[in-house]
Amino acid sequence: MGDNGVQDVLDMLKKRQPSDTEFSKEFANSVISKQKIQKYILEKIDNSLGTGERVVSTNSKEIHVEHIMPKKPNDWWVKATDNDSDMYEEYVDRIGNLTLLSRSLNQRASNKSYIDKTKNYYKNSEFKVTQDILNYDSWGVKQIELRQDALSKLASTIWSIS
Predict the structure, then answer these.
(1) Cα(50)–Cα(31) distance, rounded to whole angstroms?
(2) % helix, strand, coil for the chain, step of 5
(3) For the whole model, what pTM was predicted?
């Protein structure tokens, strides 16, 4: 490849890339079950929010992905999803249901109720992506969808190729 080779590759990638609207739509409906990918996406979103308090990846063992609606629901969370286990499974690994917490806060938050998590753990987090959860009065499928939609708009600006 000569000097035009790099440009040819860039042109090819631009032709294959989804539009920001397509990307946002796909992101808003995505379920991501691999924790490393979840963490990477949340770190990038948190960094884009401008917290600047620390570089998350410097000590990744100290940073956990928190499932707001937990992976293993207790009775409180089962009631919050109207005992619909299929719906629960569909939403538990959506980015809209995930956030970042320090290891110690995440271990203590565990399966506690949303109100308990917000009062005692999320408000004490240094991550902007986690503090933004405090804007929601309750937590369930609707809130996960709203948050995922908002995060998809941020993601399309972070990973825009154009």
Answers:
(1) 25
(2) 65, 5, 30
(3) 0.80
